[in-house]
Amino acid sequence: MAISTQQPLDSLRVADDALWTEGAPHDVFRRLRRECPVHWSSGISQSPADAGFWSVTTAELIHEVSRDWETYSSAQNIILTDHAVPLELIQGMFIGMDPPKHDRIKALFQRGFTPKAIARHEEKILEITTRVLDTVADRETCDLVSDVAQPVVARVIGSFMGLSPEDDIPWATAINTLLGFGDPDLNPKGIEQLVAEDVPMLFERCMTLVAERRANPTDDLLSTLIFAEVDGDQLTDVEIFAGFVLLMAAGNDSTKATYTSCMRALMENPDERQKLIDDPSLVPSAVEEALRMFPAFAHFRRTATKETTLGGCPIHAGDKVALWYPSSNRDESVYSDPDRFDVTRNPEHQAFGAGGRHFCLGTALARLELRILVAETVRRFPRMAIDGAPTWVLSQFSSQLKSLPVRLHT
Ligand code: HEM
Q: pLDDT, tens digit, for every residue of 289-298?
């Protein structure tokens, strides 16, 4: 890590794997915020075919870019590397589109995310969480990522979408591969094979569910999507499938990542955990603090559509611009003592994006799920302790732990 803090800024390459073996490189970001908040990296070591890119690291500048979709487009790609996930897949999802198409499709999806629609799931989420925590309750140890977080988040999003439990594992495996594309453990067979083999299978399964619901509407999100209408417009089958993939991707890894990071921080900061035990009404604030300190997505990318300047730097049409949320969420000009985990802070943050057209659609669902998961875990396992070194997914996009071994009762 010392290399990155002393290295000349013009040879520093922010997305190189060497900096990301233990999650986001906070010392690099601290330096960039101070010395060079809009920074040019000449390339990405593990993906030599990729062009260089700009890194944006302060909250104010990320806000500026996020709100200006005409200058900073999402339609070229949403991740830094152009050589991992097929572009057609990304551009088929509304997160990879610009207005007006983006707005038309997002409006149809919004029907399924009203506060009423989300609140209906509270009991179900609690039931799923309780059932999964029951499966580990009598054990001495478990892995919080694979034994608790993964089965809970997969079933919550699965039931929200209308999938049956047998579909949880195939979907979760496909999504973990897709988002963890840079990690050989998560992506052993390569994305090309995933796209060739698994995506057609998942499309078929999704279309069977669509056909069933066209014949007999149900009250899940898939039915909402099939029948949603804005100005006489309905989603096509391909748009439904692309949206399905987007929601499964957004719903699986993001909540899993935030929950496990939150639990790790609580175990590493027993005084903060004690505050939650003494006063469970602090759980929502603790969840916001975990979202701030450990944003599940390390970046989303935009691509400049014209010549412009950002933070005094000349940006050219076609340049890639990475919005690094682990950096903006620890911006010293916004937060005092930003590296301290403080369950009473209840901060505003950019984990869900920094405003603008692509602001996360799933915030209410994510918050509800995280609050239940954290509250129930702390209530039932108040003395849980870390039991071995946690490991990170090697990814500049999906920022999450791969394993978090814990001792359940100490
Ligand atoms: C801790 C949980 C989550 C985090 C940290 C998170 C974060 C984000 C971020 C950073 C963006 C992009 C914002 C931008 O580019 O300006 C986003 C977009 C999105 N998120 Fe989430 N998300 C979470 C959970 C969810 C859930 C549970 C769902 C739905 C099931 C969801 C659905 C979406 C969708 C559909 C978009 C695309 C919105 C658009 O392009 O207009 N997210 N999310």
A: 999 999 999 9
